Amino acid sequence: MTALLEVQDLHKHFGGVQAVDACSFTAAEGQITGLIGPNGAGKSTAIDLISGFKIPDAGTVLFEGKEVQGKTPHIISRMGLIRTFQSPREWPGLSVLENLILACFEPRRERFWRSLWGPSRAEKERANEQLTTARAVLDEFGLFQLRNERAGNLSGGQKRLLEFARIRMAEPRLVILDEPMGGVNPVLGERMASAVLGFITAGTSVVIVEHNLPFIERVTDQVVVMAEGRVIAEGPFDQLRGNPAVVDAYLGEMPSYDDADA
Ligand code: ADP
Ligand code: MG
Description:
Layout: E1 3-14, E2 17-28, E3 32-36, H1 43-51, E4 58-63, E5 66-67, H2 73-78, E6 81-83, H3 96-102, H4 106-117, H5 121-140, H6 156-170, E7 174-178, H7 189-201, E8 205-209, H8 213-219, E9 222-227, E10 230-235, H9 237-240, H10 244-250
Parallel strand pairs: 3-8, 3-9, 6-7, 7-8
Antiparallel strand pairs: 1-2, 1-4, 4-5, 9-10
């Protein structure tokens, strides 16, 4: 098993708060790695440090063996590591289909737009191919009927599915999802789970932060548990259930088991 992502001794403080404190873990190629822990554990900050949205005080992030800490999100995403945010981000005024086309990596995207204005036959064909792919991806995520809808009009769950579809178009090596079930109606749980599992089939490895533990249990191969900025346990979900440190970390916080039949 190859470590696609290797986080070593990462630190980040905000004033007097040590948000991430000697955090180390790995995520393997071809696997879904869960990152869980109570509110304030430092999960989102860790993602910010890994994806270039914040600069660590210390520590190393290796992606495919290359150091990426301190690089810009733009460079890191071009290397094949992309992340989502706790609130979905879309271009609200553009259609669902246009949002998908914009998700392609720049060289492909440029070719697409250029082909519309300065059409050589080869470029037109490439643009058509991209449209065909976009339509197929929309169909797979159950969004095809909504392709001409303004993305801003979608429900919370549909925006998440659109975000997943955009990731599929971008074809990264690794995606980090920050609480993708947040704001999503539990009836979409099944579709969200198959979407996450579908990334693996498409060749994209996954790190997922999620409060919904049944969802984590269902989709992950390995789980990393954080508390107070540190990793306190690692392993398959089943093996963590009885771990006293994990139970302690969650005391005082009710994990959202109410979504159990999502
Ligand atoms: P999680 O995602 O696990 O809930 P966060 O990474 O959001 O945790 O937060 C970890 C800690 O860092 C919390 O105590 C939070 O209040 C603090 N924190 C996060 N971002 C900032 C910030 N930009 N400025 C100050 N404190 C922050
Ligand atoms: Mg968070």
